[in-house]
Amino acid sequence: MLRQIIRYSKVRLNSQVLAYSTQQMTSNNTKKKSTQLKEMLESKNLEFIMEAHNGLSAKIVQETGFKGIWGSGLSISAQLGVRDSNEASWTQVLEVLEFMSDNTNIPILLDADTGYGNFNNARRLVKKLEQINVAGACIEDKLFPKTNSLLDNRVQPLAEIEEFALKIKAMKDSQQDPDFCVVARVEAFIAGWGLDEALKRAEAYRNAGADAILMHSKKSDPSDIEAFMKAWKNQGPVIIVPTKYYKTPTNLFQDLGVSMIIWANHNVRASVQAMQQTSKQIFDDMSLINVEKKIVSVNELFRLQNDKELSEAEKKYLPKK
To answer: So which residues are the catalytic ones?
Structure first.
């Protein structure tokens, strides 16, 4: 009897380990999503990830060919119809992320605002993200509730360096997957501070264990980024978000040694424009005649939803009449 119990326990444990390992691997039996993201951050090449805000947009980003997804806080809050000021709870954000993760096999880096609270909230966030196979979290050194960095004439108070560094350490100490990535977003330039403050914060966060530094700027030129990259001297991977300095040639960032570029909110902005134009056209015309050829077919939605798989499964699992 005792041998049976021991044998059962071993089988059960092995099954649990296998289940966890399988969950972390993609459907194509390739590398873990977290490993994919970490390798992108450590790559010698300039890498790119694209914004998505729900399961559908995440699928489109993957099909386009991008190697990773930016789970944008601005975009997710916008598609929920609330402001980017932590009005959506972090569990509501995770619900959206789970659909995105289930629908793709490329890594997602979550825009996790300030970590949704103090170190304890942030380390619990890591635990929940790992459970839904999200590859990493990017937290910014501002105060909860956050204010969007691109809003004009808003006060942007920063967290104390030591407190934020210890929050990063708590996140790294709590992760179970060694490849889970924690990115520290430095908001010194956004808050009106200079290079010295940005550099001091980036070094402190890197020393606390951050896998990469996201250096943010809302200038219309790349001067903040140029100054930082020259002073940083390749101490670790650097991510940028050129939403405001979009006219800058991408090869400049390659030459500066930037590791990754985030195209941060363009899918949600594109979808808003498309919906506004389509809604107005139908409202004005009281007809569909002028829009049908400008939008995707219903069949394309079925394809993106993978309806074919369900049709095949029904043949296999439903009783034949």
So the answer is: 84
Q: Dihedral angle at the C-alpha atoms of 202, 208, 211, 212, nearest 10 degrees?
A: -10
Report CA-CA distances (Å) from 56 to 48, 222, 263, 297.
19, 32, 17, 15
**Residue 166 to residue 161: CA distance in whole angstroms:** 9
DSSP structure string for 142-194:
BPSSP--TT-TT---PBPPHHHHHHHHHHHHHH-SSTT-EEEEEE-TTTTT--
Q: How far apart are CA 191 and CA 146, in angstroms?
A: 12
Place of tokens 């399988």: 22
Looking only at Cα atoms, what is the longest distance across the chain? 77
CA 298 vs CA 244, 293, 302, 304: distances in Å: 35, 12, 7, 10
CA dist 163 and 37 (Å) reads 26
Residue 33: pLDDT over 60: yes
In terms of C-beta density within 10 A (0-12 exposed, 13-18 middle, 19 or more buried), how is residue 309 classed? Answer: exposed
Least confident of 13-17, 197-201, 204-208, 247-251: 13-17
Measured distance CA(301)–CA(303) in Å, rounded: 5
Q: Produce one character per residue of 68-79: b if its CB has 16 or more CB atoms within 10 Å, e if not.
A: bbbbbbbbbbbb
Please check whether residue 139 is in contact with residue 184, taking contact to mean a CB–CB distance below 8 angstroms: yes
Q: How far apart are CA 36 and CA 19, in angstroms?
A: 20
**Which residue type does 280 have?**
K
Sorting pLDDT into bands at 50, 70 and 90, what band is 55?
Answer: very high
Beta strand ranges found along the chain (DSSP E): 47-52, 69-71, 108-111, 136-140, 181-186, 212-215, 238-240, 260-263
**Nearest-angstrom CA–CA distance, 90 and 271:** 24
